[in-house]
């Protein structure tokens, strides 16, 4: 009777162990059958009430059942363990030969790129790169450049005035003054930098933009020198021949003064919104340094002469990359900046 029960218990326990789908389930069956208070332990307790003969037979059967079930259990447990191990190995697998992800690398702003190119070009031509303050004196920004207080040319540039006679420089030309006074003639200098105008901002006007000033002072400097350097500059920037034209232009600090225009690179001269349908873009105002400007910085105009130019760096960048809204350049929009 008890032998039949034991047999049945062993068969059903084996089936349950084999059917377990998780380690937890398997463990539950083990506790229930093989545990200290499990089904087999109960049978072994009941053996106390048996005759010695019965005890011998049942004891044998019990041991056999226990061993058989333990080995089924161990087999199943091993299968679970090795499945878990390979799942873990799979999840922790790292391809050591895979290329590392690209670090987020920045790039120079297009204005900085063009500025650096022009600096390199002029340095190779013997020019010094100078820097000047953005907060300037009235004297450097205007007077020393032959624009006295009552001069109508002061109205050409809408100025951000600060307290006293200080202002935000309206152009990079005051660095000419600093260069002449500090270094004296002969002089070859350029001065890139930020300038400010009290202007209404729109697609083609900014209150803050960039210029690059240039100046050469030496004996017998003529318009031919000016033109040579300007053409070298332009072919260096555009890496091709650009059509230029020279018109008379008025700036108090040069005489004669010129507007050097380039043929519009966006439309090739046929007319577009960037060149206001004219086919030409004003790019490079320039001229021969006015004697008053030399004199005010302690240089004798009888002995020395020079040329100067003021390149609109911001406009140049817009031409080069066909950017039609000046506000993009300092807007800080990464979608725009990542193109460069
Ligand atoms: N400073 C002038 C401006 O911002 C540009 C300029 C014109 C600079 C003629 C020069 C020059 O050096 O010769 O409008």
* End-to-end separation: 91 Å
Structural class: alpha+beta
Q: What's the tally of helices?
A: 12
**Helix content percent band:** 40-55%
Explain what the structure shows.
- This protein has 340 residues and is α+β, with helices and mostly antiparallel strands.
- The chain contains 12 helices and 9 strands.
- The strands form 2 sheets. A 7-stranded mixed beta sheet has the order 1-4-5-9-8-7-6, sandwiched between helices. It has a two-stranded antiparallel sheet with strand order 2-3.
- Helix 1 runs antiparallel to helix 2.
- The protein is rod-shaped.
- 29% of the residues are buried.
- The site of 3,4-dihydroxyphenylalanine has 11 residues, from strand 8 and strand 9.
What's the quick description here?
The chain is α+β, with helices and mostly antiparallel strands and 340 residues long. It has helices at 2-19, 23-34, 39-46, 52-92, 110-124, 138-141, 174-183, 223-238, 291-296, 313-321, 327-330, 334-337, and strands at residues 128-129, 135-137, 166-168, 187-196, 208-218, 244-248, 254-263, 280-289, 305-312. α1 (2-19) packs antiparallel against α2 and α2 packs antiparallel against α4.
Q: What are its keywords?
A:
binds 3,4-dihydroxyphenylalanine, about 350 residues, 7-stranded mixed beta sheet, BirA Bifunctional Protein, domain 2, single chain, rod-shaped, two-stranded antiparallel ribbon
Chain-wise SSE layout:
Blueprint: H1 2-19, H2 23-34, H3 39-46, H4 52-92, H5 110-124, E1 128-129, E2 135-137, H6 138-141, E3 166-168, H7 174-183, E4 187-196, E5 208-218, H8 223-238, E6 244-248, E7 254-263, E8 280-289, H9 291-296, E9 305-312, H10 313-321, H11 327-330, H12 334-337
Parallel strand pairs: 1-4
Antiparallel strand pairs: 2-3, 4-5, 5-9, 6-7, 7-8, 8-9
Bound molecules: 3,4-dihydroxyphenylalanine.
């Amino acid at each position: 009777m008890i032998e039949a029960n034991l047999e049945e218990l062993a068969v059903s326990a084996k089936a349950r162990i084999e059917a377990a789908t998780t380690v937890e389930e398997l463990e539950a069956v083990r506790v229930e059958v093989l545990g200290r208070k499990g089904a087999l332990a109960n049978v072994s307790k009941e053996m106390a009430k048996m005759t010695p003969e019965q005890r011998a037979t049942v004891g044998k059967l019990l041991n056999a059942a226990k061993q058989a079930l333990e080995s089924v259990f161990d087999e199943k447990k091993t299968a679970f363990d090795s499945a878990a191990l390979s799942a873990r190995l799979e999840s922790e697998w790292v391809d050591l030969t895979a290329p590392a992800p690209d670090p987020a690398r920045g790039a120079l702003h297009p204005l900085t790129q063009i500025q650096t190119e022009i600096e390199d070009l002029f340095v190779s031509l013997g020019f010094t790169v100078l820097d000047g303050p953005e907060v300037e004196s009235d004297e450097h920004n205007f007077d020393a450049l032959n624009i006295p207080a009552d001069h109508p040319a002061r109205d050409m540039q809408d100025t951000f005035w600060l307290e006293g006679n200080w202002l935000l420089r309206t152009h990079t030309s005051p660095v000419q003054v600093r260069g002449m006074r500090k270094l004296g003639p002969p002089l070859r200098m350029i001065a890139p930098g930020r300038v400010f105008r009290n202007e209404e901002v729109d697609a083609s006007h900014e209150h803050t933009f960039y210029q690059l000033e240039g100046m050469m002072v030496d004996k017998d400097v003529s318009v031919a020198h000016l033109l040579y350097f300007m053409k070298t500059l332009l072919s260096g920037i555009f890496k091709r021949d650009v059509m230029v034209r020279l018109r008379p232009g008025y700036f108090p600090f040069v005489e004669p003064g010129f507007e050097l225009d380039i043929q519009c690179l966006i439309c090739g001269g046929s007319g577009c919104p960037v060149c206001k349908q004219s086919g030409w873009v004003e790019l490079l105002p320039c001229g021969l340094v006015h004697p008053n400007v030399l004199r005010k910085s302690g240089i004798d105009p009888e002995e020395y002469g020079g040329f100067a130019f003021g390149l609109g760096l911001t406009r140049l960048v817009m031409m080069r990359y066909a950017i039609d809204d000046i506000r993009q350049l300092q807007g800080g929009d990464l979608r725009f900046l990542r193109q460069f």
